[in-house]
Amino acid sequence: MKLTKTLLATTALTVAGASAHAQDMADSMTLVSWGGAYQESQHKAYVEPYLAMNGGVTATWDESSAEAVAKLRAMNEAGNITWDLVDVVASDAMRLCDEGLAMEIDHDELLAPAPDGTPASEDFGDLIVSDCFIPQIVYSTTFGYRTDMVPAGTEPPSSVCDVFDLETYPGKRSLQKRPIDNMEWALYCDGVEKDDIYDVLSTDEGVDRALAKLGTIKDQVVWWSAGAETPQLLADGEVFMGSTFNGRLFSAIAEQDQPIGMLWDMQSFDLDGWIVPTGLSEDRLARVLDFLRFATDTQRLADQAKYISYGPARASSAPLVGQHATLGIDMAPHMPTDPANAGNIHIYDYEWWADNRDDLDAKFQAWLAQ
Amino acid sequence: MTVTIIQPKPISFVAPVVGIAGAFAGLFVGTAQGSALIGVIGGFVLTAALAFLWLTVLRNERIARWVTTLGMAAAGYLTGGLMGGLVGLIFGWLFGWFIFWLGEGRYRAKLPPYTTPMQVFLHFGFRVLCGLIFFFLITPIVVVMPLSFNAQDFFTFTPEMLRLDPEGYSLKHYRDFFTNSDWQQAMWNSLSIAPMATFLSVSFGTLAAIGLSSEHVPFRRAIMAILISPMIVPLIISAAGMYFFYSRLGLQGTYWGVVLAHAALGIPFVIITVTATLVGFDRSLTRAAANMGANPVTTFFRVQMPLILPGVISGGLFAFITSFDEVVVVLFVGSAGQKTLPWQMFIGLREQISPTILAVATILVTLSILLLSTVELLRRRSERLRGLSPG
């Protein structure tokens, strides 16, 4: 499995990848990301050191990744691209690439090789899911639960199927308001083999079967749409367990000391990375590419893991992952890619969802409204 | 029929009415403890029984009210700690007073003796309804304030907060607001955009209102309708339109772009308030000024402007608040460099539910209250000075 290949890579020294042609580069950049702790980690790991090296350059953050596709379309139509580098999830990068709104990248030419000389395309491996996409992190959607709300005399939940077990673990659950992941978890817990999930889901009976399984807990589900909601609901004790991004759970548990436990079973892997919008002027493009080469090198990706528990996308970064910047705890065991956590993972099929998303969204929404 | 204003009421009337009020209070206590239904029933039974006990068995008001207040406070303290005790104290005092106010018929004291029971009912029913509406409007704003002093990073009343433990409270979200560069930049942007947008809307809006109020302007109504349209067209449509228009002009993502967009949104408010004040303006005054040799500019600043100033100021206040509160248009027309406070709050709410937003909201609410009270006090002062009110 190449996704976990990141764990097996060898250690080596870093080479700073920045090459300077300062005279013909723009001196400001607008970077687009998701806000919150994630953007903060990018700022600390990539932007602060880059600005320190390049005096006179300024970087502005725009927290608009959630509507990146729509906004880039509007910018393209208005002929006024105000963003220089955009952080998006892999599926959005594929859409933007197909629509010609993101620039195709030669990864080996534009990105720094690994310290041992491995070309970037090999270092990132099959995380490069699109020609426009420069992966940064591997994150996962997984479950957290209130440790103090586990019924007395019961073991805490250990399997994703405990979400569907209302008898042993009564209480509300929070799930993301979309079919992705939820349908797969439902089928898996209904007895479908992991390898057959997408085959079953391709049939109408399979979709009905997944919805029927979700239907068994429907009246106990709080549906969320923003990543901050599940940690808030867990902290309030409004739900017993809920799905969210693993970094959010890490923050609630390790940084906020909430009585929350974490399930890694059937965690759903996903990727997040940069795209460069098409249509940038030459000086802005030169600045962005210079920054990009620096921000995606082995050391910078490893540095980001000091601030947030998302796995660096380069294989060569994994051995460099150190301790949390303020708490001083080892970050490796909190990474979704850690062998102890990645025992039973779910890799969601981008291509299958790209083909079936619209259809299943409609069915899912209709089911929700019933 | 004898004129009996204050006389004891039958217990068959008092007990159910007190019970209904008790059920309402019980609804909140019950919801907080997990079961609204038990709260409602318990509240009804408890308060109705109290009314019966105090009004028929022990008719000593002083003792009865003390017992109710202290008893409820003790019960509250035993179930809910310090906070519960406080709530119990307030409820106990309130119900002790309510039982005797109702039971002794004191509620008729301020009403004319000839009012029928129906009129009395409507009188107090109306007040209760007003109180409920007020409660409904104010509660969401008030709840935000204690939460902004939360020691945790969640929108949660923690057990420490409910126990009134100082550990549960902190000023860290206020510190975050005043030290975090994102929030400071956002505040600075808001404070530099809103006054400029207000200035432009007031200038253009006042001129437009004066022009449109003179009779010889052709197509007055059509022009007025166009100028007011930003108020009527859904904001998101204006925003999308401005985005594409300003992009072509190179104004999108600039300070002046946002200022112009906000000025366009503020102008209708100024036009409406100034037009309303101009209705009471005597046109012969401008003719008199002209007769005495003043040119139109002097006439405007020396004669017309001072008289319509209240309308101009309130229009300006609306324009300022529109710009200061606006999030949709700035999301389109602004770029990350023009991130205003509402924009920053919107991001914070979507991406990380952080109580810093609540701290900002509390500061803004306090500022608005201060601002509006100041304006109101100044208005009263000027009215008093002009002898318009007895003050």
Annotation keywords:
heterodimer, A: 370 residues, alpha/beta, D-Maltodextrin-Binding Protein, domain 2, disordered N terminus, B: 391 residues, mainly alpha, MetI-like fold, 15 helices, cell inner membrane (chain B), transmembrane helix (chain B)
Give the helices and strands, then pairings.
The complex is a heterodimer of chains A (370) and B (391).
Chain A: E1 28-32, H1 36-53, E2 58-62, H2 68-78, E3 85-89, H3 90-98, H4 107-110, H5 120-124, E4 134-146, E5 173-176, H6 182-189, H7 197-201, H8 204-215, E6 221-224, H9 229-236, E7 241-245, H10 246-255, E8 260-275, H11 282-295, H12 298-304, E9 311-312, E10 345-347, H13 350-369
Parallel strand pairs in A: 1-2, 1-3, 5-6, 5-7, 8-10
Antiparallel strand pairs in A: 3-8, 4-7, 4-8, 4-9
Helix pairs in contact in A: 1-12, 6-8
Chain B: H1 11-33, H2 36-57, H3 61-103, H4 117-147, H5 159-162, H6 172-179, H7 181-213, H8 220-232, H9 235-249, H10 255-279, H11 284-291, H12 296-325, H13 328-333, H14 341-351, H15 356-385
Task: Write up this protein.
The complex is a heterodimer of chains A (370) and B (391). With 370 residues, chain A is α/β, with parallel strands linked by helices. Chain A folds into two domains: 3-132 and 276-334, 3-Layer(aba) Sandwich (D-Maltodextrin-Binding Protein, domain 2); 141-269 and 345-369, D-Maltodextrin-Binding Protein, domain 2. Chain A is 35% helix and 17% strand. Chain A has 13 helices and ten strands. Chain A has helices spanning 36-53, 68-78, 90-98, 107-110, 120-124, 182-189, 197-201, 204-215, 229-236, 246-255, 282-295, 298-304, 350-369; strands spanning 28-32, 58-62, 85-89, 134-146, 173-176, 221-224, 241-245, 260-275, 311-312, 345-347. In chain A, strands 1, 2, 3, 4, 5, 6, 7, 8, 9 and 10 form a ten-stranded mixed beta sheet that branches. In chain A, helix 1 runs antiparallel to helix 12 (298-304) and helix 6 (182-189) crosses helix 8 (204-215). The radius of gyration of chain A is 21 Å and the shape is globular. Chain B has helices at 11-33, 36-57, 61-103, 117-147, 159-162, 172-179, 181-213, 220-232, 235-249, 255-279, 284-291, 296-325, 328-333, 341-351, 356-385. Chain B has two domains: 11-114, no CATH class; 180-354, MetI-like (MetI-like fold). Helix content of chain B is 77%, strand content 0%. Chain B is built from 15 helices and no strands. Chain B is mostly helical and 391 residues long. The chains are: A alpha/beta (370), B mainly alpha (391). The A-B interface holds A 30, 32, 34-37, 60-63, 66, 74-75, 77-80, 82, 226-229, 231-232, 235-236, 256, 258 and B 152-156, 182, 240, 243-244, 247-248, 250, 252-253, 335-337, 339, 347-348, 350-353.
